[in-house]
Amino acid sequence: MNTPRTTYFLALADDALISSQRLGWWISRAPQIEEDVAMANIGLDQLGQARALLSLAGAADGRSEDDLAFLRDERDFRNVCLVEREQTDFGVAMARLLVFSTWQHELYAALAHSSDAMLAAISAKAVKETAYHVDHAAHWVRRLGDGTDESHTRVQAAVEAEWPWRDELFDTDFLDPDLVADGTAVDPATLRDPVEQRLGTVLHEATLTVPQARPAYSKGRLGRHTEAMGFLLAEMQHLHRSHPGVTW
Amino acid sequence: MMLTFVTSAVTVVDVYGNDFTAPGDEPTAPSASPAGARPEEPASFVALLESEGRVEPRDEMPEGYRKTLVRQIAQHAHSEIIGMQPEGNWISRAPSLRRKAILMAKVQDEAGHGLYLYAAAETLGVDRADLLDQLHSGRQKYSSIFNYPTLTWADVGAIGWLVDGAAIVNQVPLCRCSYGPYARAMVRVCKEESFHQRQGFEILHTLSHGSDAQKAMAQDAVDRYWWPSLMMFGPPDDDSPNSAQSMAWGIKRFSNDDLRQRFIDMTVPQAEALGLTLPDTAIAWNEERGHYDHTPVDFTELFEVIRGNGPCNEQRLSHRVKAHEDGAWVREAAAAYADKQAARQSHEGAA
User: Fold this and answer.
1) Distance CA B86, CA B312 (A)
2) CATH of the domain at A124
3) Among residues A232, A238, B232, B274, which one has the fewest Cβ atoms lying within 10 Å of its Cβ?
4) Burial class of B280 by CB neighbour count within 10 A (0 to 12, 13 to 18, 19+)
5) How far apart are CA B324 and CA B315, in angstroms?
6) Which residues, in sequence order, are CB contacts of B7 under 8 Å at separation 6+?
7) Which one of A28, A235, A240 has the shortest CB-CB distance to B95?
8) Which run of H or of E encompasses B13?
9) Residue A45 lies in a domain
10) Residue A75's domain spans which residues?
11) ipTM score of complex
């Protein structure tokens, strides 16, 4: 049984892990070789964040990072649905990365002052990484938005598709208020204004329109995922689960 | 778009810095002039080679030397880029997060090697986009080893240990290649490949000391990758028509058979350390020669793979072409954006 504290750490870890899993798909499929390198790099940073956070989450009851990544079932994953959906279009990948990394950057900047020393240390490192991720995504969204007619149309459509899924990033329901009160966690609702402001600026620079979208039904924080999640986990976990108890 | 290999054209296969054709296909050595008569080599070039100096982009060089290097470096670059696929195939399924991180970093390194090598080729007056077009249209090749599938996780280990191991044996001498930019790129590539080989060995070591199923997985991978790895060095010296010219130019330093023997001598003790067997019962230490004896390699399969009939030729190329075509709108947008930015800056500058 997870404590509220563990649940919080898992939510942040799972966001990073699942986003990394989706980014890994791009390695050998990017529009140019420099971008294969960049997407691998960002995916690696996120994977590193996930490993540190999973280890932190598992420390209380002796579960390893691999136990948590490979042996939990879908309903026990706590990532937002934003990151688990398929992304085989480069415009979608960059629009999503812009949303996710901007949120992560604000989050980690705040968590660098967490009363949990380990979480603060992990966040202090991650805030530097995510600053680069935001920069990379923002550059691409500007290039695509203010590039050709085709790229403008495509990235606008990508932004429209991603926007409804960002609301869950600011959901507070899953979080025990005591964790906010004692300074461990950051209230996600407080991140909304700075994140939205930064996203709006980038979209404006990219000559894109901020969608007026209603929030998607997105309850990944409560373990209710999209249909894409089961396939993602089946692929990710299959080999590990096929050989119980061995060392890799 | 479905691409077929044009086997009647020059079918050169770069094997990480080695190149050769299948028998019956046209020879790969570029003939700089008809009837095999090569024009005089510039005196400065001859003097550089004689003094073991480095040829730099601005130096005079024979056209045949330049063409040979462009082809070899481009094919080496293509091999790195296509080589991302077989291992990339396991990124989503790596059995631990540590292994996933190492594998992502490794495949990322391969993309980086491709970038250094395309840049080295560009010093010879060619353009990366043109080289990629030649890869995509089948006019330039990549190492045949990547036309084999990665069927299990152990294949990631076998590729690191055997394929990267063979690549290193081929590439270390290229660090002393007569062409400066290629030689310098290879210094960095070899350092990273050496790390890759150790991680492949470590994957197999873990598997061969694990459960029965893991050990069987490791042995199966070594059984499948051993012979293709030996074929990476190219045909026997007697059937390698390009080698003499490349050696005279200081591009190639050792013969195919010498490099293959070096690889076998290095690998047999490592296999023993792993507790895995190599699928050749003739392997035995020959005291007199100071080398391991082995069964001669049957190149029938290699030449079939070079001709396009390997298990993954179509898959690897169409994956690469699809990525390129799917990304066209992105590259066009980046170019259009850069043009707009430049125009805005010049407008501001004029104002």
Assistant:
1) 10
2) 1.20.1260.10
3) A238
4) middle
5) 14
6) B22, B25, B307, B308
7) A240
8) strand B13-14
9) yes
10) 4-242
11) 0.98
Contact assignment for B81 to A33 by CB distance below 8 Å: yes
Interatomic CA distance for residues A117 and A120, integer angstroms: 5
Chain A residue closest in CA terms to B336: A147
Give B98's contacts in chain A (Cβ within 8 Å): 51, 248
**Shortest Cα distance from B82 to chain A (angstroms)?**
8
A100: in domain: yes
Q: What is the largest CA-CA distance in chain B?
A: 82
- Cβ atoms of B158 and B145 within 8 Å: the answer is no
Residue A166: both structure tokens together: 């960002």
User: Which is nearest to B17 in space by CA: B299, B203, B251?
Assistant: B251
Smallest Cβ–Cβ distance between B210 and the set A32, A65, A246 belongs to: A246
The answer to whether A27 contacts B111, with C-beta atoms less than 8 Å apart, is yes
Contacts for A126-130: CB closer than 8 Å, 24+ residues apart: A126/A45, A126/A49, A129/A45, A129/A48, A129/A49, A130/A45, A130/A101, A130/A104, A130/A105
Residue type, B25: D
| A164 CB within 8 Å of a chain B CB | no
- If one counts the domains in chain A, the total is 1
Range 193-222 of B in CB contact (< 8 A) with A: 206, 210-211, 213-214
Smallest Cα–Cα separation from A101: which of A208, A23, A207?
A: A23
Give the integer Cα–Cα distance in Å for B122 and B120: 5
CB contact residues (below 8 A), chain A span 87-146, against chain B: 90-91, 142-144, 146
The string of DSSP letters for B129-193 reads: HHHHHHHHTTSS---GGGGS---SHHHHHHIIIIIHHHHHHHHGGGGG-SBHHHHHHHHHHHHHH
Q: What is the pLDDT along chain A (248 residues), one digit of tens a residue?
A: 789 999 999 999 999 999 999 999 999 999 999 999 999 999 999 999 999 999 999 998 999 999 999 999 999 999 999 999 999 999 999 999 999 999 999 999 999 999 999 999 999 999 999 999 999 999 999 999 999 999 999 999 999 999 999 999 999 999 999 999 999 999 999 999 999 999 999 999 999 999 998 999 999 999 999 999 999 999 999 999 999 999 99
Structure tokens at A134: 């935001």
Is A248 contained in some domain? no
Residue with tokens 């080729």: B121
Nearest to A30 among B93, B323, B332 (CB): B323
Minimum CA–CA partner of B89 in chain A: A25
- CA distance linking residue A92 with residue B254, whole number of Å: 49
Q: Are A32 and B327 within 8 A, CB to CB?
A: yes
Judge whether A38 lies within some domain. Answer: yes
Q: Under a CB-based contact definition with an 8 Å cutoff, are residues B242 and B19 in contact?
A: yes
From the CA of A202, how many Å to the nearest CA of chain B?
15
Please answer yes or no on whether A151 and B107 come within 8 Å at the CB atom. no
